[in-house]
TrEMBL record:
An example Gene Ontology molecular-function term: acyltransferase activity, transferring groups other than amino-acyl groups
PROSITE patterns, sorted: GNAT
Family matches, as Pfam families: Acetyltransf_3 (PF13302)
Keyword 4Fe-4S: no
Alphabetical list of CDD domains matching this protein: NAT_SF
Protein name: GNAT family N-acetyltransferase
Length: 229
């Protein structure tokens, strides 16, 4: 056994309620129209978190370049929004552009500091696996710094094999073929995520409208008060 390799339970992704967990947390598929939100989320990460996400101290320019090059047609980009429609958790499932490695994908995730401890990273990983299986992927890879214990914990909990090589670690997880339950779970998760986002969007717009109305009323009252004087 290579040095630094941690033998884990058989690395087949266990259902362990994954689909249900993903449905309970509204996860939305992102598209090109969300580039600004993706950039805002990544640029807001503290220096330490940005270092762990990219594996190097990425500058603002490098982060913006990464966002600019995101291929939303080939890859899957997933997000969790709060009530203010701020992107608080983000996952990128990168699929190979080469047909030779079409059954492989790589997973990366970031969670805002204010949203830590809620299991969002694990939920995004579950959803990523669901999507990967649906697209015929049989091997999910995670490349992370060894000190990125949160990411490696997600991989280990899913049953991945983790191999450590000094400051960096590689994890891989074998995925079973997609079945009917996979397709149904995917549709349910997508529908729930979209409905949740639209409700939050309507609520956000409504509160902005109320704020505008209150501002107008305040201006009217001040105008009347000044006129009375």
């Amino acid at each position: 056994m290579p040095a630094g390799t941690a033998p884990l339970r058989p690395h087949r992704h266990s259902p362990r309620g994954s689909a249900m967990n993903s449905v309970m947390v509204p996860i939305r598929a992102l598209g090109p129209q969300h580039r600004a939100r993706v950039a805002a989320h990544l640029l807001a990460l503290p220096e330490r978190d940005r270092y762990l996400r990219f594996g190097y101290p990425a500058t603002d320019a490098q982060v913006e370049r990464y966002v600019e090059l995101l291929n939303f047609e080939r890859d899957e980009v997933l997000g969790i929004f709060n009530r203010k429609l701020e992107l608080i958790a983000l996952a990128h499932v990168a699929f190979s552009a080469s047909q030779e490695y079409s059954r492989c994908a790589e997973f990366g995730v970031s969670v805002s500091g204010s949203a830590r401890g809620r299991g969002f990273g694990a939920r995004l990983f579950d959803r990523a696996i669901l999507l990967a299986r649906h697209r015929g992927v049989s091997m999910m890879f995670i490349h992370a710094l060894t000190e990125n214990t949160a990411m490696l914990k997600i991989a280990r909990n899913a049953g991945a094999t983790v191999q450590r090589d000094g400051p960096e670690s590689e994890a891989w997880l074998e995925l079973p073929p997609a079945g009917f339950d996979t397709r149904v779970s995917k549709l349910m998760a997508e529908h729930f995520g979209e409905v949740d986002y639209q409700l939050k969007k309507q609520a956000h717009q409504f509160w902005r409208l109320l704020a505008d109305v209150q501002e107008i009323r305040r201006g009217v009252r001040e105008g009347r008060h000044q006129a009375g004087e």
